[in-house]
Amino acid sequence: MRVFAFVALAIAVACSSTQNPDTDAGSTNDSGTTTDGAPSYEASIPYDGALGTCLGASLLSDLGKTRLMVGASMADATAKAAPFDIRYTYISGGVADGAGPCASCATGCTAAGVSCSNKQKPGCGWWGCWQYDQDPPGAYARSFFSNAAANGEIPMITYYMLLQASGVKEGAPEVTQAANDATFMARYYADWRFLLQQVGTAKVLFHFEPDFWGYAEQPGTDPHAEPAAVASANAIDCGSDENSIAGFGHCIVSMVRKYAPSARIGFHASSWSTNMDAAGNTSPSFDVAAEAKKTAAFLLACGADGSDYLVVEASDRDAGYYTSIGQNRWWDDTNTKLPTFHQDFAWLKALAEAANKPLIDWQLPVGNMSLANTNNAWHDNRVDYFFAHPDELAAAHMVGMAFGAGAGGQTTPETDNGNLIAKTKSYVASGGQKLCP
User: Which of 35, 97, 135, 348 would disulfide-bridge 139, Cβ 3.0–4.6 Å?
Assistant: First the structure.
């Protein structure tokens, strides 16, 4: 489950999703075997072994950075309490009804039949009206961009729209039904276009549709052969793109270049997308790098070859929370018993090098071992390990680590007793981790 809350001026809007693939989609490989018969598009993987730890040099330079970045999903006070590099939030919930985004939030604007007027409580799900209804639609996003920049942070948007806006069940239906519905997708592209138009000249990081690409890869099908409404739904921007999942990804990237040329975009790479859970594996004979290369090949075929980076995820919830419900999601911080941090970093490194893209590790659990291990304050070891081993992150081609809760009841930067703020201050004061020494 991904649960996230947004507050815009006088309106608070909460959005939630259904199952999280971290618990349902991937399966740990205990037998030591890997998936056979990788699709033929894997042969197209680019690889430059000489790239070393400087794979993210171009992106960091573009963002005005030279070291591994730190960020979070956080409240305003937290964002001002430490020198964070990135501040991220979700854009989700639903798209506006009708042929395109509304002209006014106060009158005539609905999403899923619910009025976007402030008179309707809690209001509609369309992000364009998460604000005072007398302000022009899109003010929420514009304010987020400008406020982050004013605080010295790069704004990052996770666009997680297709599942909730379409109303289909999470998983394969997102790919086979929602993405192939020309009527729905026309509204979806219009919403994406409108969001991009709010960027202007701002430097914004976009993280596009987490989980979706993993579900698209799981059947083991060439994405050029998976149907999707692209040219049939968006002739304005992508009339020459094929009606396939590959065409969908290409269209999304080309729209960023057209409407928000200063923005940068990354697709989400899921460690479970090959039907093997590379992050949670417990078999010493499991070929982590081979699975990473399959995922890289699929994403490149989907249009990620034109993207700027890939986004990865360690877990959507704190390890202590998972223990409380009878699941083991701990990574051994001594790196002696699988699953380990080193195993995950090996997957990350192979993924980045196969795709020729740097990585941002997103929605990292915020818990720490000094907490009470109860609701909103769970045990986890990822924050402390990441800050203690930034050289390992750089070696895995990571350019940024962004912390935040992926579900309600998890530890946040506001409930971790100041651990993330203190670690960020210390990290920046020390000069941080250079990626390209």
Answer: 135
Percent of the chain clearing pLDDT 70 (strictly above): 88
Task: Identify which of 306, 288, 300 has the alpha carbon closest to the alpha carbon of residue 349.
Answer: 288
β-strands 69-72, 398-403: how paired? parallel
How many Cα atoms are found within 13 Å in the side-chain-facing hemisphere of 142? 13
Task: Give the CA count within 13 Å in the CB-facing half-sphere of 32.
Answer: 3
φ, ψ of residue 205 to 5 degrees: the values are: -100, 130
Q: Is 153 exposed, middle or buried (0-12, 13-18, 19+ CB in 10 A)?
A: buried
Helices first, then strands: H and E counts in the chain: 16, 12
H/E stretch holding 399: strand 398-403
A 10 A CB-CB count for 161 gives: 22
Q: Which two tokens stand for residue 395?
A: 């070696």
67-116: pLDDT as tens digits:
999 999 999 999 999 999 999 999 999 999 998 899 999 999 999 999 99
322 Cβ contact partners less than 8 Å away, ≥ 6 residues apart? 315, 328, 329
- Measured between its terminal Cα atoms, the distance across the chain in Å is 39
Strands 86-92 and 69-72: parallel
Residue 115 CB partners (closer than 8 Å, separation 6+)? 109, 123, 124
- Residues 6 or more apart from 341 whose CB is under 8 A from it? 331, 332, 333, 335, 385, 389, 392
